[in-house]
Design goal:
Layout (H helix, E strand, L loop, with lengths): L1 E8 L6 H12 L6 E8 L6 H11 L4 E5 L6 H10 L5 E4 L11 H9 L4 E5 L7 H19 L11 E4 H4 L12 H7 L4 E5 L15 H19 L4 H29 L7 H33 L11 E2 L2 E2 L3
C-alpha cells in the first residue's frame, strides 16, 4: 500500500531531524508499505526550510518538500500537502514530535481492514490541562453533538484517510479538524483508536485559547454545509416561517389587549415588533430562495454529484472507479 504522510510545520528546526529518524524507524521495517512524506513549510522564519532541503537531498525517494510563500495556517498547509501527494492513503501528523510515527502502521492496518477514516485519540494527553486539554474536551463534545460524529479527539492531527474521502472538498479556515465529519457525510466508515502522545520537546505551541473560538465559528459553517448545503431553503425558509408566525401571534395579542383592556393598537410597541418580525421572516424566505439558486448553480456548473458511490458490482465483478 502506498501512503502519503503529510506534515505541516512552522518553525520546527530542532524537531525535524528527530522526526525523520522516527519515521524511518517506524516505516522501513514495514515491507508491505510504500511511502512518501510531504513536509509543508508554512512560512517558517527559522532554519526549518534549509533542514528540509537537506533531508530531501539525503532521501529523495521518500521526502518531498513544499514551501509556502508565507504563513497561511495549518489548514492551508494540509491542503497544499494533499494536492502534492500521490498515496492512496493519506496520513496527517504534526511535526513537533508529540505524535508518534510508530502509530502509523497501526492506522494503515485499520484502513486495510476496510475503514475509510482512522482517527487518533490522545487518550493520555501530555499537555497542560487548563489551557489545552480542557478547552479541547469542550470543543470535542460540542463538535460531536452538532455534527453527529462522536469522536473523543477531533484536535488530534494524527489521522489516516482513504484518498477518495479527503479529496472531494476544499479546506478553509480551521476546517482540517472537521475532516472526519465531512467524510462521514459522504458515507465514510470511521474508527477512533488510541495513539501515543508525547510532551513537546522543543519550541512552544502555536495554539492558544483564541483558537477555540475560531473552531466554534467554523462549526456553524460545517453544520450548514453538512445539513443544508443542498437544500438551504429548509433553514432559511423554516426560520422565516417561524418569524412570520410570531408576527401573527403578536397581532393576535394586540387584538386581545384591544378588546379586553381597550389599549390602542398604534400606541403599543407590540405593533412595531409584529411588523419587524414579518419583514425579517419574509426576507429570510427570500434569502432561502437565493441560496437555493446558488446551491443549484454550484452543483450544476461544476458537475458536482449529489451522491457518492462506494462500489460497483457488475456481472459479479468489481468495476469501481
Amino acid at each position: 500500500m502506498f501512503i502519503s504522510i503529510i506534515i505541516p510545520l512552522l518553525n520546527e528546526e530542532k524537531s525535524l531531524p528527530l522526526l525523520k529518524n522516527s519515521l524511518d524507524e517506524a516505516l522501513f521495517p514495514c515491507k508491505d508499505i510504500d511511502w512518501e512524506v510531504i513536509f509543508v513549510d508554512d512560512g517558517s522564519s527559522d532554519d526549518s526550510l534549509n533542514i528540509l532541503k537537506r533531508l530531501a537531498e539525503e532521501d529523495p525517494q521518500h521526502v518531498i518538500v513544499v514551501s509556502l510563500r508565507r504563513n497561511f495556517g495549518q489548514t492551508a498547509a494540509i491542503a497544499a500537502g494533499i494536492d502534492h501527494s500521490h498515496g492512496e492513503v493519506i496520513v496527517l501528523m504534526d511535526a513537533d514530535l508529540q505524535n508518534d510515527p510508530s502509530d502509523i502502521p497501526f492506522l494503515v492496518d485499520k484502513i486495510e481492514q476496510g475503514y475509510d477514516v482512522v482517527s487518533g485519540w490522545r487518550k493520555d494527553r501530555q499537555d497542560p490541562f487548563l489551557t489545552r486539554t480542557l478547552p479541547s474536551r469542550i470543543a470535542n463534545w460540542l463538535i460531536s453533538v452538532i455534527t453527529g460524529v462522536y469522536l473523543h479527539d477531533y484536535g488530534c492531527t494524527l489521522k489516516a484517510y482513504r484518498r477518495e474521502v479527503i479529496t472531494g472538498f476544499r479546506l478553509y479556515g480551521e476546517m482540517h479538524r472537521f475532516i472526519p465529519a465531512y467524510a462521514s457525510n459522504v458515507g465514510a466508515r470511521i474508527i477512533e483508536v488510541p495513539v501515543h502522545h508525547h510532551p513537546r520537546k522543543y519550541g512552544k505551541t502555536k495554539y492558544g485559547l483564541e483558537r477555540t473560538f475560531k473552531v466554534i465559528l467554523d462549526l456553524f459553517t460545517v453544520k450548514f454545509l453538512m445539513s443544508y448545503a443542498q437544500k438551504p431553503i429548509y433553514i432559511f425558509g423554516g426560520t422565516g416561517f417561524v418569524l412570520i408566525g410570531l408576527s401573527f401571534l403578536t397581532v393576535v395579542a394586540l387584538v386581545i389587549r384591544r378588546l379586553t383592556l381597550g389599549e390602542h393598537l398604534i400606541r403599543s410597541p407590540l405593533l412595531l415588533l409584529s411588523v419587524m418580525l414579518f419583514i425579517l421572516g419574509f426576507q429570510s424566505v427570500l434569502m432561502g430562495l437565493q441560496a437555493e439558486v446558488l446551491a443549484r448553480t454550484y452543483h450544476e456548473s461544476q458537475h458536482k454529484p449529489i451522491y457518492t458511490v462506494r462500489q460497483i458490482l457488475r456481472e459479479g465483478k468489481d468495476q469501481s472507479v
